[in-house]
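Re: How this chain folds, sequence and tokenised backbone to follow

Filed under: protein folding, tokenised backbone structure, sequence and structure records.

Contents: The amino acid chain and a row of whole-number tokens, matched residue for residue.

Body of memo: The sequence and its backbone structure tokens, given next.
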Amino acid sequence: MTPRRSRRLFVLASALAVGTTAVLVVPTPAGARPAVNRAEPAAAVEEAVLSASNGSNTVRFDTGGTVTVSEAVQHVAWAPDGSEAVYVGADQQVKRFRYDSPRTPAAVPPADPGGRYASPSYWKFGLGLIMAVKESSAKPWQIAVNRNPLKESSWPQQFVHSPDDSRHYLNPDATGVDWGFVFQAQPNEGGRLVGEPWVGMWDYALGQRKVVDNAANPAISPDGIRLAFVRSDGSHQQIFVYDLRDGRTVQVTSNPVDHDHPVWSPTGSRIAFSDGSGVATVRPDGSGYAMVPGLSGVPAYQSRRKESVVRLAGADRVGTAVAVSRAHWGGVGDNPATGSRAETVVLARSDMFADALGGTVLASAKQGPLLLTSPHTLDPATRAEMVRVLAPDKTVYLLGSTGAVSAEVQAEVEAAGYRVRRLSGPDRYSTAVEIANAIDPDPITVFAATGADFPDALAAGALAGAYNMPARVGGQGTVLLLTNDTTLPAVTRKYLDDHGFTRWQLNTIGMQAGTAMIEYAPRQTFGFDRYETAQQVAYRYFDGIDIAGGRDVVGVATGTNWPDALAGAALMGTLRAPLLLTAGNATTLSAPTREYLDTYRAAISTGYVFGSSAVVTPALADGIGARISGPGGYLRTEGGTTGTRTTVTSPAGPLDIGLPQRPSGPL
């Protein structure tokens, strides 16, 4: 078996630390995802039950319940939200099943009967999987990261961590952290494990480090600052806890049986482990030891986290744009902790999409909302939102000529105390170029989509916004150009030729743009229709490993009209997350959107719906919730304002739900 290696995820440091208990610099903030990134409150995250798998086809829970799989299962591990599980089957391949469909598991590609897999678990908060892989009996164990746990694609899916030093690297764990993973290393002799193991960690800032000698099977705590591991006390294998901050080690078990397979509860308050022929738990300080009746084998916690479906909508398209803005951007006078600070506002006409398509990227790049107004007079709701989020003397961008956004509107904006910068050209293609120049006069990446219709450009706008690297954080911009369906406008051609882009900088979204720019040999992404094109954009550009902090949100908008989706695309670009499309008046989600949600349900905690029930039906919103949630279910909220919270009653009782914010900074 040969996992794909066309991209090397892990570049090993030239030298490894060899101290036995070296105190490490823990990634800030201690490897944990900031709480502000989660849509659900801490109480919802912490609810969990304990399960165990013992090589039979039955997974048992400490509640007395069971899950019966269609084959014998080993080392079951649950997704962060409990919505699904991965395991090693009787054929030594990794598979997964949805929590409520255990008898229909799916193979995790790439599968190869010539190799063996072990110890699978979720990586990057469910964005992918991490596991040990053995290509043949003569080769050592290696660590494989599978960034997309279900979808077959032409892109490399599996990356192998091996320093090529002939050691075994196995038993990886990345639960609850996004900076890397911990692992067990051990000498190799003809493919066999020999000698004394040690525990190390890999993080993207510091590379590989040895953490502690004479240690095996590590598990990282949810806050990323402690390691549970296995070590012999001279008679039996015991569980120890090592603190990454000060190097202190605590032995937490001492009874005369062998212990193995430590795993942390979602709160970090307890550690579960195999205890002789049973399963036990203990607190990290060694107190509270207790056997768990009815469980044996390898333990795993299944979260009962509640996911969120958040509808952002107003009475009309102007109101929806305001609702989208209020969901993310804090007010000028608000506490900075209650929402992101807007640096600008992008203002587009509400009756036509032509000039506004590039505005989604501009709003993300310049850090502000995209709002809509009548061409002839500034809408009162838009004015009120502009004044709420934007401090006086900041810049408001007007998209299009005075025929699109009138001089009267400009005068009203200026009278409100703002500087105005109008970006316009004789047509939509020229306006797109002007917007691109305002984002970055020398961009590093270009996306292009047809400007004759809106769907491809909406997906592309969220994408380009997500990949923007503003100058304030030392990066270069990403811009969106428009083609006239399959024809390349002269102004767009001149822009491309003047900048002298290489083919690796050029990307087209949709078949029309790909045809228009074929002579430049761009990287093309398209689908059978608008829904599949948006899905392919999400798969290709958002399932990578380089987006900071993982990805836990997704947006869904109607693919049959543009205003609500336009404001949504600007927000998703700011949140660095994909925008998917569906027929808004249908009873079921479009097939490509369903497939994407199924692929990444383990990673998605919040689904945004843009537009009222008349734009995107309640059945579609419920469809999103059903696909991304686990046994904890999901909560529905309507509207949403940064700094306030909406209480929604669920079957488990009232829960307080806030809207997630994305961290700033480069991808």
